[in-house]
Amino acid sequence: MEALPVSPLQPKMDPVILKPHLVETLPFVLKGWTRKKIADHFDIKPTGARERLEGIYRAFGVTSRFELYEKATTEGLHYRTSKGPARVYHASLKILELTDIGKLDL
Asked: Checking DSSP bridges between strand 77-80 and strand 16-17, what pairing results, if any?
């Protein structure tokens, strides 16, 4: 009997809990925005943008944008805020918008 393929959107673990400001920053990091562009967009100092990036890296257990994107491509990024719905981002499916897990038919 052959195993059915697992959907790349099927979470492999509990979601990472991110602070709301990191959730709002994550899509821009994954789009390749620079720290300066992130800082300008959110009207924060470049050091604030760097701190957001470091918080995202720490939460997902990576040390660079490359590792973050690689993880998004291979495993998907499964996360939520402390009170919000679980979400997933999977780069290999070219999902540009973050999708509420509850709305997926897996």
From this structure: parallel
Please give the model's pTM, rounded to 2 decimal places: 0.71
For domain 16-101, give the CATH number: 1.10.10.10
Q: What is the secondary structure of 23-66 as a DSSP string?
A: HHHHHHHHTT--HHHHHHHHT--HHHHHHHHHHHHHHHT-SSHH
Question: How do beta strands 99-100 and 77-80 pair?
Answer: unpaired
pLDDT digits (tens, 9 = 90+) for 3-14: 434 444 455 556
In this structure, the chain runs to a length of 106
CA distance 59 to 105: 27
